[in-house]
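To whoever is covering the structure queue this week,

Two jobs came back overnight. Logging them here so there's a record in the thread.

Job A:
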Amino acid sequence: MKRMTLLARKEGMSNSDFRSYWAGPHGKLALELEGVAQYIQNRVDKVLWSCRSVPS
C-alpha cells in the first residue's frame, strides 16, 4: 500500500524548519507505526502556482 499526502507549512514557519521537522521527528514517528516498512518523501523544489491563484 502506498499513501500520498500533500502538506502546507504553517504561516511563519521557514521552509528549512518545515523540511527538518518532516524529515526528522515526523519520519521517526512514522517508522515506529506497525506495518510501516519504508518512509519516503518527495519534496516540491519549485512552486509553479499557489492554491489561491489557479493558472489560466
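Job B:
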Amino acid sequence: MRLLFRGTVALGCYTGLATTIVPPVLNGLRASHPELTVDISVGADDDLLPALDAGRLDVASLYGRFSPADLRREVAHETEVMALLPADHPLADE
C-alpha cells in the first residue's frame, strides 16, 4: 500500500533553488501525491528563518551554515561553489 500525502505544505527557499531544483521536484510530487499542495515562499535566510520560527513555513531549504542549531537539519542536496572568470584573467591559471 502506497502512502499518499494530502493537504498543504509551506516551503521556503532561496531564488536559485526555486528556479532550478524545485520545479522538477514539484512535478514529481504532483504526480505521486495529487492531493498535496505546496505553497512556496522565496527569500533570503533573513526572510525564511523568521517565517519558519513563526510557523508560516513548514520547512525551509537553506544553506546549512546559516541555520540555527536548534532546528532539525537534513541534507537534501550537496553542491559545489565555483568561481568563474574569463580565461584571459590573471587568476585563471591559479
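Note for Job B: The mean pLDDT is 86.

Please reply-all if you pick these up so we don't duplicate work.
Q.
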